[in-house]
Structure prediction request, 747 residues.
Amino acid sequence: MATLTDAHISGIARRRRIDLCFAVAGAVVLTLALGVLVALVTNLAKDGAARLGWDFLTSFPSRRAGDAGVKSAIVGTALVMFVTACTAIPLGIAAGLYLEEYARKNWFTAIVEINIANLAGVPSIIWGLMALGLFVYWMNLGRSILTAGLTLGLLVLPIVIVATREAVRAIPQIIREASYACGATRLQTVWHHILPYSLSGIITGSIIALSRAIGETAPLITIGALTYIAFLPPPPFGERPWHYDVESRATFDTAQRTQPLEDVSRDISGSHDSPTPSLRDGEITFAWRLDPGTPITQSRLSLPLSSGSMSLSDLVSAIDADENLAATISRAGRLRITADAPGEDPGEFCITNDTTGLIEAFSIAPGGGRYGATDWIMSEFTVLPIQMFNWVSRPDSRFQVNAAATGLVLLTLTLMMNGIAIWLRYRLRRSISW
Amino acid sequence: MSKAATTPVTLAPAAAAAGSLRRNKRYAAVAEVVLFLAAASSVLITIGIVAVLTYESASFFEHVSVREFLTGREWTPLFEPPKFGILPLLSGTLVTTAVALCVAIPAGTIIAVWLSEYAPYKFREALKPALELLSAVPTVVFGYFALQLVTPLLQKIIPGLPGFNMLSAGLVMGVMIIPYVASLSEDAMRAVPIALREGAYAMGATRVQTAWKVVFPAALSGISAAYILAVARALGETMVVAIAAGQEPTLTIDPRDKAETISAFIVRASLGDQPHGSIGYQSIFAAGLSLALMTLVFNIAGFFLRRRFREAY
Prediction:
């Protein structure tokens, strides 16, 4: 047996040093990564905490940064999450149960499994494109809460499926055998044993899925979630008021006109903060021009909107009576006012505000009566991440403060949901002993 | 057996029992169909994605040749005159991905090795959820972080760095996918049998030698799956680059420049509300199809690599 020489001993010492170095390096890298999380939270808090208050949570967005708030975004997020949960959780549990308890080992099951793994890896922006082509245009669901909820529900579906499968797989086989031995059918076994025992695992997975969905921005931008929403979706059975709705989405008839104006429309999107004051007086001023440089055309129209008793057809004829204006009622029951420019071909037209040269297209929804129970689901909406993105893309630093405050709200929600999920999982692991 | 089984056992309310048995069987059959449909819906979703992307892209490629799309050096589908060369978007996507991987792969691997080979059990149980929280932060918040904190910091180090740049977006994106790389790699290393480690320690190896020369190679297929899935994540990441990298298609490989990725273009074009059926609208889907194909290749490779390492031991 060879004796240890000095060279051996120094070699061992060197390797021990390397070992120690790596132990330190690993701890440092981990601390840095978690330090980023801390930096991110403190940075948001430093920028936005002062802005975060009751007013901020209960105000609609505004052109003035100091008055703007996230009321419509919070309501929108809550409603979209409700639809998301109703889509992803039942569908995910059912699919997970099928794959664990029913599926035979055949080519179809193999395809479904590969498919779910792949769906989990599809970038969220691609989900948005799918939703735009399928839900918005093919199924004609519009840019609604329903479209958003379905999109996010399908996006997080793989998370719920995987969580369900893992929870179900953890249940020992003897439970199933005992149930079958008592003469239970497969459904009874699943319903009375498998589902209850795996429930906390499924709930954990579902919370994580929803916390992922709540922060998703890209797919909702693709389907056209609006950034400026100064109204709440219609409450079930609520009274239907006269409703003046500024849309900043300008569409023009020819390609040449679309271009410069589209940029303007992006700049101003979200910058209208209230219905024009003249509407409250029952009088709307329409002013527009086709291109910068051409003269402004104006029409002034008196409408007894405040009484709420004007029928839709009276409104249409009042507008049609004006030589420059025309009114149409869309399939969704919205009144769209279009204007002809003298000497130009009429197109779907937008109204420009003559003092600032901004573009507004707007519609007036008919008033009177009551909403149905599910009208809200077809309503346009905005959500917290979209609102934050809108504010963060503005050069004005006062809006960055709003973005930070919105980020804080969003971060609190997601971290809270994840915290609950982690705690549930921890409790679950301690309490279960098969 | 046969005799005992053929002797009928008479139960008192035999008819009622048989009826409820039949009903239960019927419920069970209906339930199986419903559950099957739920599982099959995932395939329908995939078909939906593929159909939408190919249908709209097909109309796009009626106007634009594949050759122009793949080799053109300018991407201005929303301006006059429109140009449809995807190379600038591709360069933006690849550069931000490369920057992100330069952060995520070394950091993620070191954290995974440390957690699996060094950290005491209690430590690991506490730190893994903390890492999960990092990956739970919404991407739009990471975008704000890149634009408002990381870029100003970088500007102090690199003079002349523009306010929008791929470096800052890529770095933040890298941090964002660290937990992903770390947790998948750690799973792979933990799956390596303890006997291999004991063998190494018995030979007198230190922890760092055991980790890098025994455990790491044994877990390599799982770790490479983690890397590949991280690439797919980085390619498709949208909000950070849309906010912090500048929204201007630029053909460049310098991460200090501002540029636009495929995903960021889709966001910008969607904000402008492209009329349905216009070439601008179709260009979103053509860009999306390219992105989907790129991520698909990585995702499938990752899926099979992961499956291989799971079956290895």
About this structure: The two ends of chain A are 52 Å apart (CA to CA). The longest helix of chain A spans residues 6-48. The beta strands of chain A are 243-247, 283-288, 297-302, 325-329, 335-339, 351-353, 358-365.
